[in-house]
Automatic annotation (TrEMBL):
One of its GO terms (molecular function) is ATP hydrolysis activity. SUPFAM superfamilies: P-loop containing nucleoside triphosphate hydrolases. PANTHER family: IRON COMPOUNDS ABC TRANSPORTER, ATP-BINDING PROTEIN, METAL TRANSPORT SYSTEM ATP-BINDING PROTEIN TM_0124-RELATED. Keywords: ATP-binding, Nucleotide-binding, Transport. It comes from Dethiosulfatibacter aminovorans DSM 17477. This is Iron complex transport system ATP-binding protein. InterPro entries: AAA+_ATPase (IPR003593), ABC_transporter-like_ATP-bd (IPR003439), ABC_transporter-like_CS (IPR017871), Metal_Ion_Import_ABC (IPR050153), P-loop_NTPase (IPR027417).
Amino acid sequence: MLIIDNISFSYEDKEVLENISFAVKKGQLLSIIGPNGCGKTTLINCILGVNRITRGSMTHRGRELDKMSARERAKLFSYVPQEKGHIFPYTVLEIVLMGRTPYHSIFSSPNGRDTDIAMEALEMVGMEGFRDKLFTKLSGGERQLVVLARSLAQESDIILMDEPTASLDYKNEIMFLEMVKSLCLNKNKTIIMSTHFPNHSFYFENHNLDTRVIMLADRKIKYQGLPSVVLTEDNVYNIYGVKSRILTYDGNKKHIVPIGGTENEKE
Ligand SMILES: Nc1ncnc2c1ncn2[C@@H]1O[C@H](COP(=O)(O)OP(=O)(O)OP(=O)(O)O)[C@@H](O)[C@H]1O
């Protein structure tokens, strides 16, 4: 289990996260949602060790993350960043092989086994036909699948994703969510994912995933728990200032729809 216990973080004198606590079990999917600038990326970077927390502790199976070497941390966590465009003209296979870096010394290069693992990862995301294509020439959605393959090749237990579906079209978004679902259900991966789409949490819950959500705002976790408990119309209004309605379909499956009104219009 990954335990984040009462952590805080500041950029110089600006505190962005204050007393954040949550736990994620193996095979569980945790969504982090909250308005722009609330600290989702900052929180992910604290877990990755890019940001050094100012208070609190983070442990995995009782071991302090801060006491792990960079290589150990890279074997435990992989990262799927927001799609932002890439400059270097590596091939798809070369990008995925970068996921094998924690398993090598700086002087060794990837071997045949690494290539097999990288190709398996590409097959899992349906991108094996793109192995020799230049990463820079792929669409945003295709790149995101390749980056997911890189994180699979890293063979980490925990995958951190920062708004991974932001640049995906409707079909690729569904495909990506299906992939994420399958990684938790079939590969027992733990996934922590920031998202701007509360419906993704319902999607996972509706598909019987062991899933939780935390809602961040004003430096703190305002609500956390099961999506159907936490993602209420009132909580969405309190966090985003947007009026919405929870619709139930097909028995008990939930879906949230904005109904247009914003904070300024609340009676
Ligand atoms: N390197 C930095 N130095 C100083 N302040 C920063 C830095 N990075 C982020 N911030 C500030 O910290 C706050 C949280 O930013 P962060 O990127 O974590 O938010 P976010 O929830 O991921 O936002 P978004 O949904 O827009 O991606 C913001 O106010 C941002 O301006």
